Each structure stands twice: as C-alpha cells, then as structure tokens.
Amino acid sequence: MKSCLVVDDSKVIRKVARHILEGLDFTVSEAADGREALDACLASTPDVILLDWNMPVMSGMDFLRALRETPLGARPKVVFCTTENGVAHIRAAIEAGADEYVMKPFDRETLQSKLQIVGAA
Ligand SMILES: [Mg+2]
Question: 4-aspartylphosphate modification sites (predicted)?
C-alpha cells in the first residue's frame, strides 16, 4: 500500500482528498501546514505528498524548499495543488522540486491521473 501525506490548511480539502486517496488504496496522513508536514516526513517519509500553496506557519513553497534540502531515506513525489489564479506559481513550484500539479477543486479522475504521471498510483 502506498502512503500519501495531504498537506492543506483547509480541513475540508484534507477530508475530500483523504476520501479520494483511500478509495485509490492509499494510506493517508494529514498535516495542516508546512512545518507539520516536514515533521511528518522526518518521522516517516510518505511515497507521495499532496501539497497546498497557501498555508499559515510554513507555505507550500517554503516546505518544498526545506524538503529538498532535508536528507530523507527516500524522495517523496510531490503533487502541488493550485487554483486557477495561481497558475503563475506552477513554474516556481516545479523549479523548487514539485513533480506535478493539480488544479483545485480536483476530482478523483484528475487526482488519479496526476498520481499515475508521477508513478505513485
Ligand atoms: Mg490553503
């Protein structure tokens, strides 16, 4: 079973993502900001991370930079979540080490295809 860490400050989005991911046979854990996510990765590195951009404490971008500088046992795949008006962030995210991106709101089919692209589903 693959593991996915859902990082988003919205409890509703975490819940929706969890529901979809569990339906795709993922073991799901959650973090509400980048700091929590980094701690979670150090404790147990997930196969894939679904990452929000705008979060308090530590943003998705800051998390991504910190993650790529942190020596972990494995390199988790990162799927970056953005909104229609956040398209300009995609390039910066990919340059900072994201593997793919998905537009919010996402549905099961979209998320599954993105996970397949990064080889996690
Ligand atoms: Mg957010």
Answer: 52
Q: Which of 100, 98, 106, 121 minimizes the C-alpha distance to 19?
A: 106
Rounded CA gap, 77 and 11, in Å? Answer: 22
Per-residue pLDDT of 61-72, as tens digits, reads 999 999 999 988
Q: Which of 34-43, 64-73, 80-89 has the highest mean pLDDT?
A: 34-43
Cα 117 to averaged position of ligand 1 atoms, centre (Å): 24
pLDDT for residue 117:
95
Query: What are the sequence ranges of the domains in the chain?
Result: 2-117
Q: How far is the CA of 70 from the centre of ligand 1 (A)?
A: 23
Give the Å distance between the CA of 85 and the centre of ligand 1.
13
CA of 45 to the centre of ligand 1 (A): 22
CATH ID of 2-117, from 3.20.20.10, 3.40.50.2300, 3.30.710.10, 3.40.50.720: 3.40.50.2300
**Measured in angstroms, how far is the CA atom of residue 56 from the centroid of ligand 1?**
8
